[in-house]
Specification:
- With 200 residues, the protein is α+β, with helices and mostly antiparallel strands.
- Helix content is 38%, strand content 14%.
- The chain has a 3-stranded antiparallel beta sheet with strand order 1-2-3, with no helix packed on it.
- Helix 2 crosses helix 3 (74-97).
- The termini are far apart.
- 12% of the residues are buried.
Length: 200
């Protein structure tokens, strides 16, 4: 197909169209006909671009900053999809409350993750303080977001890990689940032989 060319097919009141622009565009409608604008663009494409709302914008927002996880287990994919939709809906509600000073979607997601992890890290630090070790400094070690750097506990040539989370009090980048605990529980941190940090 040449650029600007369209192919229409109809079955009953359902009309499908394939339009060639920079790439192939496929549309289906039950309220449009074979109308074409100047330049060869179908009327259904113009109406879609003018009135696309709701699900389409939500999917677009999710696609820009989504959790890139692929799994053959359908329930994992469904659970992640529900979670992504919940975050997108939360961002829409946030923009309604902050019309003039709303954050970008990515900044909102990062702050949301940080706040959700904060409660988890409170419980982790509570367990750490109960451990028989003299490494823990009294007080709460908080987690923050910084530029991506190598994890001080597990990152090596064979196993590269570059988290953007770090301990604010220690000023060290660590993975939030296991390495954060090991940083504050191990009596000795091995810089060169990091595989020793992962041994129990």
């Amino acid at each position: 197909m040449a650029v600007g060319q369209s192919i229409f097919r109809r079955s009953g009141n359902i009309m499908t169209v394939v339009h060639r622009d920079k790439k192939m565009i496929r549309l289906i409608s039950n309220v449009h006909g074979r109308g074409v604008l100047e330049g060869g663009r179908p009327v259904v494409l113009r109406d879609y671009n003018n009135w696309a709302r709701g699900v389409d914008l939500s999917n677009q927002m999710i696609a820009n900053d989504h959790y890139d996880h692929r799994s053959v287990k359908w329930y994992k994919t469904s659970a992640i999809s529900f979670l992504e939709t919940s975050v997108a809906n939360a961002y829409c509600l946030y923009k309604l409350r902050h019309v003039f000073n709303a954050k970008k979607h990515l900044a909102f997601r990062e702050e949301l993750v940080s706040e959700l992890l904060q409660d988890y890290m409170v419980s982790v630090n509570a367990n750490i303080r109960n451990q028989p070790t003299n490494r823990i400094i009294p007080g709460m070690h908080r987690i923050g977001i910084l530029e991506q750097k190598s994890c001080v506990i597990c990152s090596s040539r064979e196993n590269k890990a570059s988290p953007k989370y770090y301990c604010i009090d220690c000023d060290k980048n660590v993975c939030v689940v296991n390495c954060f605990y090991r940083l504050h529980a191990n009596l000795q941190i091995y810089v060169r032989n990091k595989w020793r940090n992962l041994q129990d």
